[in-house]
Amino acid sequence: MKINFRKTIIFLLLSSFVITMILSTNGFYQSELKKKTILTNEAIKSFENDIKTGKEIDINNYLDLKKKNYDNNFSKSGRYISKKVNKIISFGMEKTLKIIIKAIEE
């Protein structure tokens, strides 16, 4: 049984691209969920106490604006690989379309 190395390499590159996209999407989704639940129990209690005591209310006093960084070596290498795959596919598509256009014009 012969192994076609080109097909195997293309399959591995496309698989890594899809996996990277899924991982980055999941990280984005988690960060969006965190934004929705930014008020913690302590901030809510502090807010309620400030209302009871009649203090001036400023929303910035109760928000936790720290952003979690999801970057790591795996995601960075995945983005690097996906950019390279994108360049290769774009180059291939450009050449293919030029050949098709040239064949149509003849």
Task: Explain the overall architecture.
- With 106 residues, the protein is mostly helical.
- It has two domains: 1-37 and 76-106, no CATH class; 39-68, no CATH class.
- The protein contains three helices and no strands.
- It has helices spanning 5-36, 41-53, 73-105.
- Helix 1 crosses helix 3.
- The longest helix is centred in the C-terminal third of the chain and has 33 residues, at 73-105.
- The two termini are 41 Å apart.
- The model has no long low-confidence stretch (mean pLDDT 82).
Report the radius of gyration as a whole number of Å: 25 Å
- The number of distinct β-strands equals 0
User: What is the chain-wise order of helices and strands?
Assistant: HHH
Any low-confidence stretches, pLDDT <50, length ≥5?
none
Please give the largest β-sheet: none
| Overall average pLDDT | 82
Describe the global form: elongated
Helix fraction, binned, reads over 70%
Helix-strand category: mainly alpha
Counted up, domains total 2
**What percent strand?**
under 5%
Quick summary:
The protein folds into 2 domains: 1-37 and 76-106, no CATH class; 39-68, no CATH class. 74% of the residues lie in helices and 0% in strands.
How is this fold's topology laid out?
Blueprint: H1 5-36, H2 41-53, H3 73-105
Helix pairs in contact: 1-3
What are the key terms here?
106 residues; mainly alpha; 2 domains; 3 helices; 74% helix; 0% strand; elongated
